[in-house]
Structure formats: structure tokens, C-alpha cells
What does this fold into?
Amino acid sequence: MTMLCVPILVDSPEQGLRLAAEARDGGADLVELRLDTYYTGDDDAVQIPAIISLISQCPLPCITTCRPVLEGGHYGGPDAARIALYQRLGSAAGPGEVPPRYIDCELATYARSASSRQSVNLAVEHPAQASGNSTGLILSTHNFQTRPPDLIRQIEAMLKEPATRVVKVAYFARSIRDNIELLDLAAELRREHGKASIMLGMGPFGLMSRVLAPKFGALLTFAALRRDEQTAPGQPILRELTEDYRFSAISESTKVYGIVGWPVEHSLSPMVHNAGFEAVSHDGVYLPMPIAGGEVGSYESFKGTLLDFIEHASLDFAGCSVTIPHKENLVALAREMTEAGDTRWHLDRLSQACNAANTLTVRRDARGAAVRLDVTNTDGPGFISALIPAVGEVAGRDVVILGAGGTARAIAAALLLEGARVWIINRTPARADELAASLDAALGGGRPIARTDVSALARLAPAAVVNCTSLGMRGGPGPDRCPLDEQVLPTLPSKCVIADCVYRPVQTPLLRAAQAIGLPTLDGVGMFVEQAAMQFAQWTGTPAPRGLFERTVREVAG
Ligand code: NAP
It folds into this structure.
């Protein structure tokens, strides 16, 4: 079973014990006592007995280490004192003394000490370990910048040491593809060498390696008690792992899903889908999958990553949501693969028409091979599902869309396919013309879609006006701005539904202005819930718990 380990930067034995009790109460199995914030190497008579007492009283089994500055820690004293500390702790066997479960020693320190004959060969020298119980040696390597170019040689060096019980690698992941290497290494070390391992990607790209550790049989993963107590960049919080990602439910058979985009760290999708998986007992976990965009090669990294995930033999990658800036890339990938003769890819009509898709569903055979890849767009149908209860049927009705970006395109295409007449108003009129012409062409010609302007609104008497611009969005170009001149609202029919796609915040300036004069409104949460529910049903074959989705989004979006 993969353990959850909380790292504690020890300021004092009392503080260490208090945080260890908190970790136990929060569901951790183990703590890592980082002694480098307490141990100085020049006050052994006081500090060593205090450390032994801390370990002996610790409410959870512990890893101890005293990380030097060179490996990202705080210890700046002499190596010799630190090594002597390890040896003393590893052989703590006096009355009432409990030795640590593991001592973590950096490979570099270990090699240095061996060559200088100042041995830290714990397995040989430690009597408890020689008898097969108690303290085990973790040999570790950390790189806070990048993947070490000699990583495989470092692992081989660790494996060569007979004392090594656990191989630990932590490096700053360069992209989410690095997680695959780390997870494969964990599985390989266990399968081929019978060796336990800790394989961690640091930074924003490394989360998958941390959450999926149980799926690949790693010994443990680290989780901080609080965000300001993280000991490595990208380290998750204990509550996130236990509650949001349901760490204890992740096993070898768990299917992996995620949201691919850039940025994705504030996406609500992981919270919504993971809660849904739990509600319907689906053996899956949903993760942020950031793939950098906006640069040359972003299509190539999108393609490379997705194909790696799809073809991986044991990742069980079962699908993903795709968001800005990769919605067009998903369509391009499906087209490229199909043109290359890969018949597994299927692109739905709406995605073809809008040249953008937000969902990939991967179907696998009994041996785990990907046999069918469905690329779909749930943004448009999600919006229509949310709109219909408010306006009734849309066929033959006029709907005005504000904006001509990706969301406007998906919603306009879905409305046209439902038989609505669509009018586009956009800050940049040429983009509205382009959207109308390209959608009309993509759907076969003769579709009722055209650009218009605000002065035509009263005459059109639309069934709904939909904000598809990013005005009103928190963190967007105009969070306090209304995308429609407020003077125009009273000229609309009293039953005209004012809908907003923006859902953060839920109450936007547009919705407030419409409510103030009594027009019916529809906020963006409904669309978010419906598009997510459609993805969920495609992936799990089970209807989504919409009520749970909605409560979750409303609570967080505010
Ligand atoms: P996008 O492709 O970047 O399009 C942005 C649109 O907003 C463009 O039409 C742009 O006009 C317009 N715009 C931007 N700044 C403006 C300003 N200062 N004044 C007037 N117009 C401005 O964005 P998108 O992907 O379509 O997303 C639009 C919104 O929909 C976002 O807030 C997003 O969060 C929301 N959304 C919600 C859901 C949901 O499930 N509820 C799903 C998807 C998206 P120009 O063409 O003139 O630049």
C-alpha cells in the first residue's frame, strides 16, 4: 500500500510532535522529520538526545533526514556531524528508544562518505537493520531545476548499494510527460528489482507522479499539512490528496482523466469530476494536465503528450477535457491521425463545424489497448441543455450572441444545428463576419447566421441574448464591465432570457443589470454543469450527479 507522508520542518521537538499528531489526525501514515531546520551540528549533547526523544514519541512512524543546502535543504554544517547523526539515529536502540522507520541519505552524501571512509553504510553498521527490522536506508537524489541528465546512472548507483532499501528520485518536471518516466521507473524498480521507490516530479507539472503513486506501486507520496508548509514546489496539501483526489481509492486499476489546457491550476473540473466519480463509485481519478500553449511547438507538445498517454500500457488514460488553448489542437490531432490512416479516431459533427473540441474519450479493449478515440464538443450542447428549460424550444427562434471567440463559435454551431436563427455582435466586427461565414460553410451553406449590431436588437426581439465574451469574468479583461450597453436592455422583450457564459463570478454585471429591470436570466453555472455532465456520461457510461456538480461549482465559483 502506498503511504501518505507529511514532511515536517522541525523547529523544535515540541513543534515536531504537535505537527506529527496533526498529520496523523489528517490521515497520514508517516511523517518525514526534516531535521535540517533544527540540527546545527555544533550542539550534539543537547540536540541528539532531543531528536531521539522526538522520534521515540512521534505518533507516526517516521523518516528522518537532515537535508544539506546543496540538495535544497537548510543544513549548512559539516557533513561529518550529519553523517554521525544518521548513524546514531540508525542505531538508536537504548531503553525506550525507537529508531526511525527510514533514514533518507542523499546519494551524493553516501558516495562521499564511503570514499572518505567515513562510512554511513547503515545496513552494515546498524545492528537493528542487520537483524532485518527497523531502520531502512532511503538513497535519494534531488534536482530543483530539471531532470538530471545522468538520472538512470544515478539509479543504477543506488541499486548497486546493498544497503539501499528505497530508491528516491525527485526532480523538477519539465512537462507532464516527465510523470510517465517517473511512474514507469517506480513500476520497473518494483517489478524487476523488487525495490521500493519514491518517484516525484516537482513543480506545476509534477502533480500526476504524486497523485498516481499508488497506481504504480511507489512506497509513498508526500503531502504538506498546509500550503505554507510545503517542502518542495508542487507538493500537494494532505486534504487535497485525501479528499479531492481520493488517494486511498487509487489502485492499479484506476482510470486516469484530466483537464488539458494552459493554465489549468484554477479549473473547477478536477473538483467536480472527482466528486462525481466518488458519487457513482467510478474507479477513476481526474487531474490537472497543464500543457504550455502560446508558443511555437505547442501543437507538437500537445500531440506528443496525448499520444504518449493514449498509447501507454498501464496508465489507463481514459479521456480528458480540453480547454484553452488546445481545443483547436484536439481537432487538428484527430484530423492528422485519421489522414495518416489511424481509423480509431472519430470527430463529431459539431467539433468539425467549429474546428474546436473539448472532450476526448478513450475506449480500451480487455488488454488495455486504445481501440476507439472519440473527439466531441460538449460546450455547445451543454449550453443548449441549460438554455432550453429557460426559453423552451430554440428551433425557429432568434438568438443573439455577444462575442466571436471559441465559446461563441461552439454555441452558434449548436444553435444552428437545433434550427435557431443566430445573430453575432462582436467588438471586432470582422471576426463576427468570419465566424458567420465559416460556420455557414462548415454546416453546408444557407444557415441563418449573420453579424448584427446593438441598434438591431429591439427589432429582432430575440428569445435570448448570450454573453460569450470574457467581459465580467474575474481576472479577465473587464471584470466590472457589462458586454451590452445597459440602456439597450429595456428595449428587449420582457421574456428575453439574458444568459452569461461567464461563471466566475456567478453573478456578473450583465446578469445584475438584467435582473434590475426584471428580465429573466441564466448564469454560466448551468452550461458548465451540463458540458461536464456530458463528458462524465461519455467516460463512465453513467448519468452525472448534476445536483452535486452544481452545488460544487456554486460553492467555489462564488
Ligand atoms: P475567446 O475565444 O478569447 O473570446 C473572447 C471574446 O471576448 C471575443 O469575442 C473578444 O472580442 C471578446 N472580448 C474580449 N475582451 C473584450 C473587451 N474588452 N471588450 C469587448 N469584447 C471583448 O474566449 P472564449 O473561450 O470564447 O471564452 C469566453 C468566455 O466564456 C470566458 O469568460 C469563459 O470563461 C466562458 N466560458 C464558459 C463556459 C461554461 O461552461 N460556462 C465554457 C467555456 C467558456 P474580439 O473578437 O473583438 O477580440
Observations:
- The chain is about 40% helix and 20% strand.
